[in-house]
Structure formats: structure tokens, C-alpha cells
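for the recovery benchmark. C-alpha cells below, seq after
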């Protein structure tokens, strides 16, 4: 079998890793970037890649919700709020956050812990070959049956955070003016 045939046979797995990496990069950019609009765009890209992951896991209904509702509605609302805030703080003009170096150190530590966990789990998985492993279909079914409410309550939490941010900004404006 050639390399292309092998890649096509494992295309779902390859796309899952690519989408997960892109979602991770988008999430990391949300922490590092300083400009609110760029952070919102990083969040939008992360949500789109999460929708792709849900689609690859076989949860197409949740993938469509992720893209249509969260990216299409919630993020448009958040971008609108960012545009209304008119951020003129000089600290925002810096390119990167002051948490860049501690974040990179935590990232290296996280990668080390994950590599250690995967390295120690591989021999245990090969010894229990008779047991049922992790499957995408099992994950998708469990997600739809047990965790759909948690997924949907995220939008309520996002809305509450935006309302709280506007209330804090307005209360601060009254004290300054």
C-alpha cells in the first residue's frame, strides 16, 4: 500500500489531529493576544475547528449547532459587544500579554505531563487487548445522551459573561465621569 492509500485510509484520524491542533493553536492565541477583536477571531476559529471535530466524531447535529449557533450567533454578538466597548486602554496596544512567558512555561509542562502519561499508558493498553478501547462512536453516543445539556448551557454562561462585562464597564464609566 502506498503512502497516499495509507493516508486516505486514516483520513478521519489525520483530520481529527489536524482540527485538534488548529483548535489548540486558536485557544493558545486567545490567551496570548492583546487586542480584543483578534482574541474574538481566535475564538471563532477555535469554535469552527471544534465543529469539525464534532463532525468527525459522528455528532453532526452538534457540529451544525456549534457552527450555526455559537459561531454564527454568539460570536457575532460578542464581536458586536467588543466593537461597542471602544477599548482605548494603552495596555491593549501591546502586541502580547505579560503572561506569554508563564503561559509558554505552563505549555511545556503540560506537554511533558501528557507525553509521560501517554508513554506510560501504551504498555497497559497493549496488555488489555481483550477489553474494549475508546471509540469515536461510543464517545459520540455518550456525548449526545449524557452531556448535551452541559454543551448547551455554555451559551448561557457566555451570555452572562458578556452582560457582566458590560455592567462592569458601565459602572466604571460612571465613577470616572
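predicted aa per position
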Amino acid at each position: 500500500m502506498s503512502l497516499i492509500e495509507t493516508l486516505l485510509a486514516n483520513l478521519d484520524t489525520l483530520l481529527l489531529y489536524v482540527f485538534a491542533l488548529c483548535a489548540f493553536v486558536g485557544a493558545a492565541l486567545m490567551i496570548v493576544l492583546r487586542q480584543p477583536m483578534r482574541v474574538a477571531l481566535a475564538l471563532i476559529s477555535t469554535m469552527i475547528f471544534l465543529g469539525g471535530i464534532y463532525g468527525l466524531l459522528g455528532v453532526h447535529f452538534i457540529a451544525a449547532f456549534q457552527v450555526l449557533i455559537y459561531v454564527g450567533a454568539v460570536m457575532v454578538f460578542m464581536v458586536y459587544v467588543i466593537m461597542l466597548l471602544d477599548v482605548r486602554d494603552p495596555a491593549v496596544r501591546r502586541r502580547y500579554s505579560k503572561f506569554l512567558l508563564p503561559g509558554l512555561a505552563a505549555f511545556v509542562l503540560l506537554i511533558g505531563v501528557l507525553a509521560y502519561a501517554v508513554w506510560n499508558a501504551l504498555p497497559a493498553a497493549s496488555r488489555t487487548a481483550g477489553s474494549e478501547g475508546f471509540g469515536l462512536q461510543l464517545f459520540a453516543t455518550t456525548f449526545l445522551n449524557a452531556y448535551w445539556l452541559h454543551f448547551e448551557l455554555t451559551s448561557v454562561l457566555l451570555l452572562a459573561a458578556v452582560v457582566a462585562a458590560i455592567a462592569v464597564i458601565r459602572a466604571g464609566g460612571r465613577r470616572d465621569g
